[in-house]
Structures are given as structure tokens and as C-alpha cells.
Amino acid sequence: AGEFVTEDYCELIARDGNHQTVKLRDKETLLLGRGDLTGIDDELCSDHQIEVFADVSSREVTVKHLGVHPSVAGGVTLHSGEQIVLGESAVIELLPGQYKYCIFIGKRLVNHSLFDEKEV
Asked: If we measure between CA atoms, which residue out of 110, 102, 18 comes closest to residue 52?
């Protein structure tokens, strides 16, 4: 059956029904904005609105703003090129007041031999 190991993981949990929760891999950069990954089709949201980088061991997510219109991260308005480091439960808004995500960092059991994941 294989052996389970505990693994930290990070998700950006969608706070409303008009976009999708996004899983972040540890120490990988991900571009978020309008598109299939988020389910956002708002023309005001750039395809690459923000760049996120999760450092799960330090329980931090770095958010860098790339889009034309501002984003809000941890209550701070970000303009193009600006970045901020956030912790668990901080809120990211791809556009001010819209497309809100809450940072969640947790643990899960992973059975590598079965490629089966269970949240704990």
C-alpha cells in the first residue's frame, strides 16, 4: 500500500464564486490573472496580473504586481513592479475589491507509491 509522509502545501482559496482556488507548489513562481487557471474573464484583469511565490517552510507567499490595473495584497495597494511578502490568512485581491484569495498553508498526507493525497 505504500508509506504516507507529511508534506506542507499552500493554496490560494477563492473567497467568492466567480473564480477558482489555486494550488501553489513550494518554491515555484506562478503567474495569476485572467485565464483558465483562475476562471477569471474580466478584461480589466491582465493575463499576468500578479506573480506569486510560495515558501512553504517559512510560511510566506511573495506577491509581485505585474498588471496595468492595481491589485491589493495584505491591505496594501500594489502597482506594477511592487511586491510584498504575506503570511497565512492574508488576502490578495487581483483587482481592488474583486477576485479575492485567502492564503492557506497546511499539511497533508501523501502516499508517494499511490499518488494519493489526503488533507489532514
From this structure: 102
User: What is the 3-state composition of the chain as percent helix, strand, coil, each rounded to the nearest 5?
Assistant: 0, 55, 45
Tell me: the pLDDT tens digits for 106-115? 888 877 665 5
Residues 36-77 pLDDT 10s = 999 999 999 999 999 999 999 999 999 999 999 999 999 999
**Pairing relation of β-strands 29-32 and 50-55?**
antiparallel
Residue 25 CA to residue 20 CA, distance in Å, equals 16
H or E element that contains 17: none
10 has which bridge partners?
24, 105
CB of 99 within 8 A of CB of 93? yes
**Predicted TM-score of the model (pTM):** 0.85
Please state, in angstroms and as integers, the Cα–Cα distance from residue 31 to each residue in 6, 8, 15, 120, following that order.
27, 21, 19, 28
